[in-house]
Design brief:
The complex is a heterodimer. Chain A is an alpha+beta fold. Chain A contains nine helices and 13 strands. In chain B, the strands form three sheets. Chain B has a five-stranded parallel β-sheet with strand order 2-1-7-8-9, with helices on both faces. A four-stranded parallel β-sheet of chain B has the order 4-3-5-6, with helices on both faces. A two-stranded antiparallel ribbon of chain B has the order 10-11. The two termini of chain B are 35 Å apart. The chains are: A alpha+beta, B alpha/beta.
């Protein structure tokens, strides 16, 4: 087992034993990929030095297939936690990664996932400073599960969230929606279609930092009100929860919400609503109205925000409800999606 | 011209030309969804009412048929394959989703040929496809059955819940419960059937029908055509997809595999000749014959008015359960479950003025 990189080499139960195999795995795969001084100490806990309030989050990743157009479970695991920290306006300080690996998993595949995690973490400017690995018997896990936990320092002094949102605030979306869900569906091959869609999976701290800075500069210290990444449940869920929690209404313009033609046609085919589909590289930003133009411009200047748009506004008119204005001048309520995605049959 | 201005103009024409009291019925679940999703009721003049008919395949499936599906799904040797819409529909005692959670092998597909693939890949399983839908989906089921036969798959069988469209319209008109000024006829079904099968509406009942497409503009334009027809007749608005003679190849496929049979419709009861049963030569692949199950006594959920909703007699919002005890999260009746059900469409895409 000492020959590194032997093709076809697989993870054994022994790799999770805590003994020599385990130690080799940690050094050869994880420390090598995530190379940073904190991790290299191989202590049971990493010491970080935050300067202010911290945000703390965790996220389990069980995506199937492990690799898909636009990303893989590694990129997803890092981006997911970085983005959760970003919703608290927190600059990521350090990540922890826990791996549950099914016996027989290819070592090269694990290396590839770790390389992807390392690249994504570098992009987000955050080190992976500690972790854990368990190997379970064949059949007890589906290949590889990764849980990432993150600590970040919050860069604003005020409390973000639904309670900070005010009547008249602007609702901004950082780009087109539905790409991740459709890319995964297509990659799974359950349906007889091919879609030229890549997952939008990306770490968004840079985008959020730009938005927070622009909001502060143009609308004052508390101009950014609310940040949320529309993952499972999609944009609809984020807006519906915000309306419910804030006891304010939200009105959005259907035509302002970017949806790519490929995503739209898959939705038409399978009966999905793009507004309820998962994204992994988008952010909903609510700001004071006077800061909105500057925030949109700042977000558009970042790598993952070129399609950012103001899509609607907060209103006291219909508390607790989200109104969607259709291209036909009519309005309807946007409701949270439920349970299984159902296809049409007629 | 913007979409809103274009629709505004059509709505204005409708306002100018429509009589004071008109009720049009749409008989396709996709129309029901489109009308709700685009908020088209908000554009209609006051005297024009749109009601939903028996056009959602899952909704019109009788309780006894659902009970049979569940009973077959419970057999340990069976892998029950169907469309997602059927999974959460309440039968007398439970749903397919609940059966699956309890251990039954229930799988969702998007195409009947996926069921054939499962049968080929898992020869030790009895794969039963619960086929549901009107003339739109029945030909794909027929094709799958022929595919399974050609591949010699003895472990594949079909439980046909398929139904055909025009006859329930006659049943509905014979009941005479709702004054109907005209029908928005189903676009997808008519692609297959053509329009001759609807002529009886005009000839026997003096009621017009227009085959409509599914965009907001299609629906308003079709309503305007209904208002403008000089005398009762059948017309096609959806000319980009529908020809008067329909799709002859698909029609032949249906005839080759299926024979008309009695079918039980929720809300309308048994309508002779409105079902699609497997022809005698395919009896060996008929799940209803292969699996002798006792589905038990069928019970409608108390208070549920799905039957009346499907006949257009009761508006979804008039049901006491609507939006209170019956919601898409926790549905009592089929019309709230199916993505094409009238209650689900109304609830999901309700306007800001609806008090739910």
């Amino acid at each position: 087992m000492s020959e590194r990189g032997t093709p076809g080499e697989r993870i054994l139960l022994g790799h999770g034993s805590g003994g020599k195999l385990y130690r080799d795995l940690v050094k050869d795969v994880f420390v090598r990929a995530f190379a940073n001084p904190v991790l290299e100490r191989l202590d049971d806990a990493a010491a970080l030095t935050p300067s202010g309030r911290i945000a703390f989050t965790t996220d389990a990743h069980v995506v199937q297939p492990l690799t898909f157009p636009g990303g893989d479970i590694g990129r997803l695991a890092v981006a997911g936690t970085v983005n959760d920290l970003a919703t608290a306006a927190a600059r990521p300080l350090g990540l922890a990664a826990a791996f549950v690996i099914e016996e027989g998993f290819l070592l090269d595949d694990l290396r590839a996932v770790c390389a992807s995690m390392a690249a994504t973490a570098r992009e987000a400017g955050v080190p992976i400073v500690t972790g854990d690995t368990k190997v379970v018997e064949r059949g007890a896990a589906d290949g590889l599960f990764i849980t990432t936990t993150g600590v970040g320092e919050i860069v604003v002094a005020h409390e973000l969230g639904s309670a900070a949102v005010r009547d008249g605030d602007a609702v901004i979306l950082s780009g087109g929606i539905g790409d991740h869900a459709v890319a995964i569906l297509a990659a799974r091959g359950e349906f007889d279609f091919r879609a030229d869609v890549r997952s939008d999976c990306a770490p968004l701290w840079g985008l959020v930092e730009a938005a927070v800075g622009a909001a502060r500069a143009s609308g004052g210290e508390e101009a950014v009100r609310f940040l949320r990444d529309p993952t499972r449940g999609g944009l609809t869920t984020v807006l519906a929860e915000l309306a419910e929690e804030s006891s304010l209404g939200i009105e959005v313009e259907e035509e302002a919400i970017p949806v790519s033609p490929a995503v739209r046609s898959v939705c038409d085919l399978l009966g999905y609503d793009p507004l309820t589909l998962a994204n992994e590289g988008k952010m909903v930003v609510v700001t004071a109205a006077e800061a909105a133009d500057a925030v949109v411009a700042a977000v558009r200047a970042t790598k993952y925000g070129s399609e950012a748009r103001r899509i609607g506004f907060v209103t006291a008119a219909h508390p607790g409800r989200v109104a969607l204005r259709t291209p036909f001048g009519t309005r309807r309520v946007l409701d949270m999606p439920i349970g299984e995605l159902l296809p049409r049959i007629c | 011209m913007t979409a809103a201005a274009d629709l505004g103009r059509l709505a204005a024409d409708l306002r100018a030309e429509a009589g004071p009291d008109l009720t049009f019925m749409e008989v396709c679940g996709t129309h029901t969804m489109a009308i709700a999703r685009y908020g088209l009721r908000q554009l209609l003049p006051e005297g024009v009412r749109l009601i939903s008919g028996p056009g959602c395949p899952v909704c019109v499936t009788a309780m006894a048929d659902l009970d049979r599906v569940l009973a077959i799904a419970r057999l340990p040797e069976v892998t029950l394959v169907t469309f997602g819409d059927l999974i959460r529909v309440p039968a007398s005692r439970g749903t397919l989703a609940a059966e699956r959670a309890a251990g039954a092998d229930v799988r969702i597909v998007y195409s009947p040929s996926d069921a054939v693939r499962i049968a080929a890949e898992e020869p030790d399983r009895q794969v039963v496809f619960a086929g549901i839908g009107f003339e739109t989906t029945a030909p794909t089921t027929a094709a799958a059955l022929l595919e399974a036969r050609a591949a010699g798959l003895g472990n594949f069988s079909l439980l046909s819940l398929h139904k055909t469209m025009p006859l329930p319209l006659r049943a509905l008109l014979d009941l005479g419960e709702t004054p109907i000024s005209g029908f928005l006829l189903p676009g997808h079904v008519s692609v297959i059937t053509g329009t001759a099968c609807y002529e009886f509406l005009a000839a026997d009942y003096g009621i017009s029908g227009v085959v409509a497409g599914f965009e907001a503009r299609d629906v308003l334009e079709a309503l305007l055509m209904l208002v403008r027809l000089p005398e009762a007749g059948i017309a096609i608005q959806y000319t980009r997809a529908v020809r008067p003679e329909g799709n002859v190849v698909a029609q032949r496929l249906l005839e080759q595999v299926f024979a008309p049979s009695d079918a039980d419709w929720r809300g309308l009861g048994v309508i002779p000749g409105s079902g699609l049963a497997l022809r005698e030569e395919f009896a060996g692949a008929d799940a209803a014959r292969r699996f002798a199950v006792d589905p038990g006594l069928s019970l409608e959920p108390p208070g549920c008015r799905c039957g009346e909703v499907l006949r257009g007699v009761t508006d979804p919002a008039e049901c006491a359960l609507f939006g209170t005890r019956c919601t898409p999260e926790d549905p009592v009746g089929a019309c709230m479950v199916s993505s094409e059900g009238a209650c689900a469409a109304r609830y999901r895409y309700r306007g800001l003025d609806d008090d739910v």
